[in-house]
TrEMBL record:
InterPro entries: MFS, MFS_dom, MFS_trans_sf, MFS_Transporters, Sugar_transporter_CS. Residues 1-23 are annotated as: Disordered. It is a multi-pass membrane protein. Coiled coil: none annotated. Its main location: membrane. Keywords: Cell membrane, Membrane, Transmembrane, Transmembrane helix, Transport. Residues 1-414 form the Major facilitator superfamily (MFS) profile domain. The chain crosses the membrane at residues 32-56, 68-87, 99-122, 128-149, 156-179, 185-206, 235-255, 270-290, 297-318, 387-411. It comes from Streptomyces thinghirensis. This is MFS transporter.
Amino acid sequence: MSETRTASEEAVEGGRGTDTARTDGRPVAPLWWVWLAAWPVTAVFVLSNAATPLYVLWQRDIGFSKGTLTVVFASYIVGLIGSLLVSGVVSDRVGRKPVLLPALALALAACLIFATATGVAALLVARLFSGIAVGAVVSAGMAAVTDVAGPGRKRLAALLASCAMVFGAGLGPLLAGVLSEVAPAPTVTVFVVEAVLLVTALLAVLRMPVRRPEARGRRVWVRVPGVPRGSGRRLALGIAVFAPGITATSFVLSLGPSLLSGLLGTTSRIVAGAMAFVMFLAATGVQFAVQRLSRRIILTAGAVSTTLSMVTLIVAVHTSSVPVLVASALLAGAGQGMGQLGGLSLLNAGVPPERLAEANAALNVGGYIPAGVLPVSAGYLSDAVGLTGGATIFGCVLLGLAVIGGLVVLATRRGVTDPA
């Protein structure tokens, strides 16, 4: 199969049926199964950010500071990173379904806890469970999309898996924002709807055409995820751009509603949810727009977008401008989207299938650690020096990291010139 064909051409061929043999002798799954395999990723990521517009309600009813709010947000990161230490290795060893099914069950438990939460402890547990489920999905779930797609559609698989992640992450806060304004018992209704989505994802995983991997020698079950020898450069380049991008979007998710209500005077939960939605819509759309460009251009553009996002964030908090804050969110989404697509594409092209889930986990560990630490620091800093000062310091730090990531990509040529 020629490496110069586009993802759309591969998709057309992939949709003709199952009578085309894979390189391992198994039939190729039809194209609709490749799309359906991405649905569990979307459903779980809806949960990951569904709580975003509801934090102001819980703050009002329970009573906690912006620092506590970012700790609640970061408990998700703790669960996610802990899950990534296990789920990638386990998925590569025992298969995708044995990891995805318990993850979806845990996500359903998180919905129940969210819907009945009456204190900060319950929110922490629900966010922790959500993070564990997301950690399993970004390793096993995204690798499952590649497995279903087959060797000839790796670029399509990378695109669909990445877009499923960011689309779900954006759909969650929009859905929660709208339902919390128009439906009764908003903190209950939102998670009942999400539970229905998760049940459909559970059914999709049960029927997903993926096979158990062949038995291999003994391996450590819990370890820091990594990549095979020779792929470290690919992982480092992806993290250099993806980490600042997802940290920028994490800041918008954790403190965006507080910025809108406390600093900019906008209290509508629909506005807060819509801002998060358009941020991730930008992350989804930009990936389709740039998929035919070289990975080097995609990663460089992602770093530039994150840099501009931080510039506009600083301007927004000093001018109390909602449109500028929305522009910052859009640029943050584009930065995460391009960093994510570039990173996943590099790994899909250079990592063998039996290590791909672990490699995906490694990319996300590298991204989510700063995405947890920096927004929490900004939250407590905002309690101490004010929201304007905290957001400004956060923006300057992340701006520097994004610039460094872009310079690292520009200084590297090997392995990043091929199309994503």
